């Protein structure tokens, strides 16, 4: 156990993550650059607790997808406001591809995480699924990205609560994802409203 209080890394990750989500709710491209930084910080935090799935998901999937999303968002500004991204309707074909990919990745990661003896294997595996959905929908500029993120937040609240029971230094990560959850719900409402305005 490292101690009862939060450390600088978890607080920095919380600050960067919350700021990223506030900007994401507004469709601001800077959210993706902050998500790149958050992915690195969160990867290190996950490494310290041996949450290998979280580390691999954020460094190997969320970080590259945030880079890709940043490029996509920069190339697709809203006609009414150049500082925000143009929202795109999710097509049935894209939804099927994302769903199929999620099933394949989840199945593969279950065995990888089990081989690494990842703590809280079931929640770690589900987190891979929700994390992939959130990242893919963000990259596709769909308003449903926020629901994917909110689902991922709920899984991570459970995952890090279990970690905080063993070491209280991880308690700020739980608070971080609780704030993420509320902000992602706001993000969904905000994006749906802007989607209606952009298509009007």
Question: How would you characterize this protein structure?
Answer:
The N terminus is likely disordered. The chain has one domain. The chain starts with 7 loop residues before the first helix and ends with a helix. It is globular and about 50 Å long. 78% of the residues lie in helices and 0% in strands. With 200 residues, it is mostly helical. Helix 3 packs parallel to helix 5. It contains 7 helices and no strands.
Mean pLDDT: 89
Query: How many helical elements?
Result: 7
Strand composition percent = under 5%
Structural class: mainly alpha
The separation of the N and C termini measures: 55 Å
The helix content is: over 70%
Assembly context of the chains: single chain
Return Rg in Å: 17 Å
Question: How many β-strand stretches?
Answer: 0
**Uncertain spans:** 1-5
The 3D shape can be described as globular
Give the helices and strands as they follow along the chain.
HHHHHHH
Number of domains: 1
Q: Largest beta sheet, briefly?
A: none
């Amino acid at each position: 156990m490292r101690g009862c209080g939060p450390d600088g890394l978890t607080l920095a990750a919380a600050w960067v993550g919350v700021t990223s989500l506030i900007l994401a709710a507004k469709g601001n491209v800077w959210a993706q650059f902050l998500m790149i930084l958050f992915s690195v910080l969160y990867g290190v935090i996950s490494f310290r607790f041996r949450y290998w799935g979280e580390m691999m998901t954020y460094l190997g999937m969320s970080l590259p997808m945030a880079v890709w999303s940043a490029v996509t968002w920069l190339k697709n500004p809203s006609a009414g406001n150049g500082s925000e991204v143009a929202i795109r309707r999710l097509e049935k074909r894209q939804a099927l591809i994302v769903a199929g990919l999620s099933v394949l990745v989840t199945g593969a990661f279950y065995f990888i995480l089990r081989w690494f003896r990842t703590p809280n294997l079931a929640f770690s595996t589900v987190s891979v699924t929700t994390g992939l959905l959130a990242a893919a929908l963000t990259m596709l500029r769909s308003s449903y990205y926020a629901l994917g993120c909110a689902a991922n937040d709920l899984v991570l609240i459970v995952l890090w609560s279990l970690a905080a029971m063993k070491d209280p230094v991880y308690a700020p990560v739980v608070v971080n994802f609780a704030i993420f959850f509320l902000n992602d719900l706001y993000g969904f409402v905000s994006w749906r409203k802007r989607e209606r305005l952009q298509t009007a």
